[in-house]
Design brief:
Elements (H helix, E strand, L loop, with lengths): L3 E11 L5 H13 L7 H4 L9 E8 L8 H5 L6 E8 L2 E4 L13 E12 L1
Parallel strand pairs: 2-3
Antiparallel strand pairs: 1-5, 2-5, 4-5
Length: about 120
């Protein structure tokens, strides 16, 4: 990415089921769901949203090998999307195991996302 125009930060959790992808998708949605950038096309090369570059940085507490990066990329409707995964986020106890919700243990997965947009 040559020039970063803005960065949005989000947090996502999976309270039950220990699904790192679900937490990551929620973190990305949290980062981007309150944005409207009507002037973005006017500063992108060629005036096209397809020329936008998006870098999603995810701080993931565990199960990085189970993260579905295609599901994360699918949350971003335009541009060329890159996903970078680092160690981070948080594991914390929910205080209860609910087998009917898919729980394997009582952990809540917390993922942090930084979504960088530029060209």
């Amino acid at each position: 990415m040559e020039k970063i125009l803005f960065i949005e930060i989000g947090m996502g959790t999976d309270l039950h089921g220990q699904d790192v992808t679900k937490a990551a998708v929620r973190a990305v949605r949290n980062a981007i769901h309150r944005n409207s950038m009507p002037g973005l096309r006017s500063i992108l090369p060629g005036g096209s949203l397809d020329s936008m570059k998006v870098r999603v940085k995810l701080a993931v507490p565990c199960d990085r090998d189970k993260l579905d990066t295609d599901a994360v990329k699918a949350q971003l409707p335009y541009g060329e999307v890159e996903v970078v995964v680092t160690e981070g986020g948080m594991l914390t106890s929910s205080g209860i195991v609910l087998p009917d919700k898919g729980d394997r243990n009582d952990l809540i997965y917390v993922v942090i996302a930084a979504v960088e947009v530029g060209y």
